[in-house]
């Protein structure tokens, strides 16, 4: 496939995502912009650089449309640009945002797509707000877009947007990427007919619709066929006047950044402090507080390990970091209480004055602490019951410049499709988790190195920059590729 770096594009890059690329902090009538260091922001930046052959001209800032946590009045007259990004805030009133973001997105789409249908709430007001909010994003884009601009729409908060753009701007290139699992049809069909059709048709407004794994692609193609009657040939959908490519693009991380952090003084310090203060074997996990992340299942698996393998008592420390998220919602508060109680019970029943089996923290970590723990631990225990991809496991592997450590990974994470050298477990199987921990602790170093090397090479080859490049190449080369396939 042709590399996009050789492909010219006259327009600018416009990203539309629920969140802006920086946090806006107001102080004494001035705003300060703190750019996020997340994967998407750095991936997108790689598309615009000084090189002559890069896809977008570096003198054009990346235009980024996203929801504003500030009011219109607060941002009036303020410059919302830094060297790389020009932000265009979308203002959504609290009532609409409640039904849109908390409602349709987080009380319906999130649980449904993560296979928790019993938690999904169906409410007409949610869908109405979802339509209104998507339209508000469109209206902002309408003020910004120019001929030749390429628009990249992100995630489940904006599924209706690609079609809205297509209707008014048939000639602009539009990409759409879905970051969470696209569910099997039996779950998707739980949505009322009108809603599911609007979502599928909305996404098909794009030229390229991307998912993390082939399974999600297959599920979406089935939905497109059964909901809207669109068949496909080799993942191309013919929409009479244009074609849509549906494909998998497994999101990745900045391999170089994590790999090169190994010897940072702060990382090295965090690593040695962890090794000194913890027991002989260290297990580590970190995730946002969410039922999809399988935190309670992980604790139950660890408990089974302590029950069945007493020879490891007083020799293991499980460092479990849970990052606060959505904890104003009752359901998340209840989940947090269950986690607190379970950790307390395990520590009380197995620990003693010399040994606390689980070191549990409910807070976020600095980057150095995070990589310090990635590189100090013998095992990363990652057990989501459902996860679109899961970047933590890729970061763990990339951080291990020493080529040691063992990844225990749930088969329900999108990343499991790429990281077959991990010890793959079913997160609902306590015994399976317990046995995997025991196997990891006994794994010879040679075997660890073999597995870690294979995983590291894969992530190094397909890092987040390759991911973006892959997506944009497919978008720009769409027609040529389709013509070529018709000849074969
Ligand atoms: C969604 C999908 C998909 C976490 N705690 C700390 C911290 N983090 C960083 C990690 C990682 C990121 O947050 C979490 O990424 P995940 O992929 O694991 O999970 P979601 O937030 O649920 O993301 C997911 C992703 O979108 C991308 O498409 O993989 O499936 O659910 O980068 O490092 N970073 C720091 N301190 C923390 O305490 N510094």
Automatic annotation (TrEMBL):
Signal sequence bounds: none
Top-level taxon: Bacteria
GO cellular component, one term: cytosol
Coiled coil: none
Single Gene Ontology BP annotation: trehalose biosynthetic process
GO molecular function: alpha,alpha-trehalose-phosphate synthase (UDP-forming) activity; trehalose-phosphatase activity
Sequence similarity: In the C-terminal section; belongs to the trehalose phosphatase family.
Protein name: Bifunctional alpha,alpha-trehalose-phosphate synthase (UDP-forming)/trehalose-phosphatase
Species name: Dyadobacter psychrotolerans
């Amino acid at each position: 496939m042709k590399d996009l770096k050789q492909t010219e594009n006259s327009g600018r890059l416009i990203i539309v995502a629920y969140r802006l690329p920086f946090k806006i902090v107001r102080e004494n009538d001035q705003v300060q912009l703190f750019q996020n260091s997340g994967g998407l922001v750095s991936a997108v930046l790689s598309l615009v650089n000084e090189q002559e052959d890069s896809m977008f001209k570096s003198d054009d800032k990346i235009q980024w449309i996203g929801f504003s946590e500030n009011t219109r009045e607060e941002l009036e007259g303020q410059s919302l640009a830094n060297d790389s990004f020009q932000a265009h805030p979308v203002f959504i009133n609290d009532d609409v945002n409640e039904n849109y973001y908390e409602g349709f997105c987080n009380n319906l789409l999130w649980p449904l797509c993560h296979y928790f249908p019993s938690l999904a709430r169906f409410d007409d007001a949610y869908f109405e707000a979802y339509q209104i909010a998507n339209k508000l994003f469109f209206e902002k884009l309408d003020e910004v877009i120019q001929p030749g601009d390429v628009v990249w729409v992100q995630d489940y908060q904006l599924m209706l947007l690609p079609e809205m753009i297509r209707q008014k701007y048939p000639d602009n290139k539009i990409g759409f990427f879905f970051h969470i699992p696209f569910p099997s049809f039996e779950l998707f069909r739980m949505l009322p007919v009108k809603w599911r059709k609007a979502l599928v048709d909305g996404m098909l407004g794009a030229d390229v619709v991307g998912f993390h794994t082939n399974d999600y692609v297959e599920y979406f193609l089935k939905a497109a066929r059964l909901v809207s009657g669109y068949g496909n040939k080799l993942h191309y959908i013919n929409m009479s006047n244009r074609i849509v490519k549906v494909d998998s693009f497994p999101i990745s991380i900045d391999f170089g950044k994590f790999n090169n952090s190994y010897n940072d003084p702060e990382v090295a310090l965090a690593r040695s402090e962890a090794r000194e203060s913890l027991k002989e074997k260290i297990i580590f996990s970190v995730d946002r507080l969410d039922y999809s992340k399988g935190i309670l299942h992980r604790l139950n698996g660890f408990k089974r390990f302590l029950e069945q393998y007493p020879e490891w008592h007083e020799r293991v420390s499980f460092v479990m970091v849970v990052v606060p998220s959505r904890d104003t919602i009752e359901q998340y508060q209840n989940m947090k209480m269950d986690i607190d109680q379970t950790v307390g019970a395990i520590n009380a029943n197995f620990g003693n004055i010399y040994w606390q089996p689980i070191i549990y923290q409910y807070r976020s970590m600095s980057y150095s602490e995070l990589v310090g723990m990635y590189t100090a631990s013998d095992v990363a225990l990652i057990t989501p019951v459902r996860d679109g991809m899961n970047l933590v496991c890729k970061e763990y592997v990339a951080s291990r410049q020493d080529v040691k450590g063992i990844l225990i990974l749930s088969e329900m994470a999108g990343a499991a499709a790429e990281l077959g050298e991990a010890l793959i477990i079913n997160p609902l199987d306590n015994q399976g988790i317990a046995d995997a921990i025991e196997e990891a602790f006994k794994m010879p170093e040679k075997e660890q190195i073999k597995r870690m090397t294979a995983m590291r090479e894969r992530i190094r080859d397909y890092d987040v920059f390759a991911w973006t490049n892959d997506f944009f190449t497919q978008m720009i080369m769409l027609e040529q590729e389709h013509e070529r396939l018709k000849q074969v």
